Amino acid sequence: MYFLRGVFVLLCALLSASRAEDDVKNGPCDIFSQDVNNLTLNCSRRNIDRIPSWPEEINKVADRDGHVLITFFNNSITNITELDRVPGNKIAISFKSNRIREIEDDAFKNIHRLVYLDLSNNRLSGDVLRSEIFQGPYNEGVYSQIALETLSLGYNEIHSLDKYLFQYTPNLTRLYLNNNPIELLDHVTLLAISSATKLEVLDLAKTDIDNIPLDAFRGLVNLKQIDLSGNQFVTVPESLSLVGSTLQYLTFNNNPIVELNDDSFIGLTSLVELEVGENDNLEEVKRSTFMPLKSLRVLHLCHNKNLKYISHNAFRGVKDKWTLKEVYLDDNNLSELSTDLLPWDKLEVLGMTGNRWLCNCDLANIVTKQDAGSKFKPGEIPYCAAPMRLTGAYVTNITVSFCPQFDTTFATKKGFSIKDLKPKHILWTILGVATVVGIGMICGLLVNLAKAFYRKNLRSQPIRYININDDLA
């Protein structure tokens, strides 16, 4: 179901984009119907400032299986009023790129099958966003819920969220808060996020946060994907370990982090894909950094312009049960890699372009003997930057012929016995001991003679004192 819902939204978006060129400003909305189960109402780029009534054709959609996309992309709407009923089982509405500052209570109560809502790139503040705008019809003294699954609030003016915001959207699985001036995840915002217990995707990119409280994700037992890019983190938040058993995708680009170490990804045992890129301050990846990542299959460690060192023990602890299939190290400041960094022959895809590779014996070993050269994608083979005679050559063209070859075979060690001794060995041993003893005795005699000479001839005589009074008397 998750996959089908994603496909539905994507297809609707593609259809809308394909019709955008034919839109006419200030003209009526266009309606496209593939069949009774798929309909698109395109009101994009009409320069409208209020929501019009739906055309009659929209009622032709089958209620049970119908999919409807309504898009008001790039208009001048400032207020979302109560929308008319829309038939169909899955409804998607986009108000992206308008001037919305206000949303009325009960705005979506007539569309209780609304599964996708895009309010991004508007002028919404946290005060405008309240639970009442998402409440369904009023029945028997209570407001019912709506089916909302995806809510995009990116590129607005949100600093904080009301703690009851998602009271009537229990099926919310994807929440996008990116590009808002949040700066601090306060208590009420965390209460709002943690109340969406079915949340699977959370986007906090470019929100200027530098910390996530330890218990921030408590209760999000279904969280699978999180984006923390473009923030002020100097370390990977420890709070991620609370969702380590479910989190599968982590994006951690463009943060002022200096190093990755054995504490960076602790507890993230279910992570499948990790992206750490465009971190200009990142300089090194230390030992055991990736040891907690027992399920990792794809690693993007790219576009870190100052990254010049990866410890040969960075994957320590995971080599025995190797799961990684794709490793991308493109566009860093790397020049060398250790031959035992990882089991190169077990990879399916390897990216290494955009670095200043020193084509030495280690790199030749990795590329040829360990078969890393066969993992490069076509057209993405890295070049040598040094030594000068290999500058510009493909790393796959270097050989190990210029590397020193060492004989790794050794004679079998033989045990020692008394029978192996010969007379000359015994004679030389006795002579050596006698020589050492003789030299010692001579040295001792010389020391004693020196002491005696010192006492007899060189030692100072004691000073004698005379009583003057006795002499005068």
Automatic annotation (TrEMBL):
InterPro entries: Dev_Immune_Receptor, Leu-rich_rpt, Leu-rich_rpt_4, Leu-rich_rpt_typical-subtyp, LRR_dom_sf. Gene3D superfamilies: Ribonuclease Inhibitor. Residues 1-20 form the signal peptide. SUPFAM superfamilies: L domain-like. Keywords: Leucine-rich repeat, Membrane, Repeat, Signal, Transmembrane, Transmembrane helix. The chain crosses the membrane at residues 426-450. The keyword Ubl conjugation does not apply. This is Chondroadherin-like.
